[in-house]
Amino acid sequence: MSTRGLARVEKSFLQIQIERKSNMKQAIAIATLLLAGVASTAAQSPTSNRTEQELKRLTREVSDSALRGDKAVAERYLADKYIETDGFGKVATRAKVLANYPGVPASMKATMDLEDIQVHVYGDTAVVSTRGVMHLEANGQKITNSYRITDIWMRRNAGWQLIAEHYSNIPADRVPAKVDPKIYDAYVGQYELAPGDVITITREGDKLMYQETGLKTRIELMPENETTFFMKGLTGQNIFVRDAKGQVTHIVFRDPDGQEIKAKKIK
Asked: What CATH number is given to the structural domain containing 213?
């Protein structure tokens, strides 16, 4: 385990476009891993309270050890073929994790609150999803970061062992700017992202709404300024561009890493 929470991750704005395919791939990957650890393909067994409480205790123990740099705890629970994936997509082996297990300096007064711990048991395999809130203090400066952590445990002869973990940053909510909703009228229309993939922008009262082909839900676009908008929980930008005559011609979707994709206004 790393010190969880010292890493940062940005969720791509363009995930809106690939969300359906991404979710399907994730579901298939998790299902494959779970089935590998289950003796049969029988229906999921109910989670006993005792097992659930044990896994919650282990989750807290491993989290606390990461803050303290207590390598003995990690050596006890991390499986030989343990893999850890951070929010940047980097994968670390057990050996690499143990080689970089320094903990957080005591002067920083680090704490990790574990919230919303959900335990799902499938025979001798379990998935534990947790929201971690890390608090740090550096020379009187307080820092708080939130993370979503997914652990996969497997029960073996020696007890439960952690075989995989993924963690990613939960972006802080951005505060929308105050703009005159009348400017939204110029943005209303349809924008072609690709053949057969059209983004529809509508106005609902004082709200500007986004909807893509194939998605039933509409998402509110919140103003960063009069031309740039964002979606709650995401870090990318939605930028409306005008030509020399002042007409809106396209939208630019900009990722946090600077990558851009354009959607031309067609209607």
From this structure: 2.40.128.50
